[in-house]
Amino acid sequence: MLNRWEGIVLKTRPYGETNKIVTILTREAGKVTGMARGAKKPASRLAAVTQPFTHGSFLMQKGRGMGTIQQGELLSSMRQLTQDIEVTAYVSYIVELVDKLVEEDQPVPHVFGLVEQAFHAISEGYDPEAIALFVEWKMLPVAGVHPILHQCANCGATEGEFAFSFKFNGFLCHRCFEQDPYLIRLNPQLVRLIRMMYTVPIERVGNINLKRETKNFLKKIVRTIFEEQTGIRLKSRSFLDQLERTPELRTNREPESELSD
Ligand SMILES: [Zn+2]
Question: DSSP per residue over 156-213, as a string?
Fold first, then answer.
């Protein structure tokens, strides 16, 4: 069957002398893999459109299993995503997370929308680390994890002071704090931020400036959830961890004080 799909290239690997096997997250058909014949040759019509992170429109012959990419048309090269080592590291992390969690040939239009919004925000100069954090929180349900963040996970209360509990997979109100001796206390701003990261679409957030310690704190929580509940561990994480420990490699994007609403 011949299909015209809008997609974002997640990854490619060489196949033989001149071909590439390309994994694309499409808006219509989810994650698909296709052979791009001749795409390794710079003069190939498929060379530019099969670069990682490219947003394009693809004509693909596909039945079950691997398809063949017949034509591709560039919608956006997403060039800004590959111009800076730190930006590229976060983009690679987002792509690896999505690739790990999304099954082949299952339509996931909300995940396509999430990646598209994340890439556009990063291209426009938004803090890639904050955007990656939004993606991590929003990918939890794709991994089958549904934290309870709109109310107390134990008693259902919506008012009060809240803490995060790994045991209850969500917020606990102050009335239920004794239910989990290992809970993590949160101030109201962190409660709002976690809810926003989980529920508000990236395109509606605007440019968000978060302090280094806020990002580190929120990252620890979401990564602990991923590790404890899904067991996934990402290759691109170790490079990011190294980058985050080496301040001289980092662009200073953190504000002196935090913007809150
Ligand atoms: Zn409660």
Answer: ---SS-EEEETTTTEEEEGGGGGG-TT-EE--HHHHHHHHHHHHS-HHHH------HH
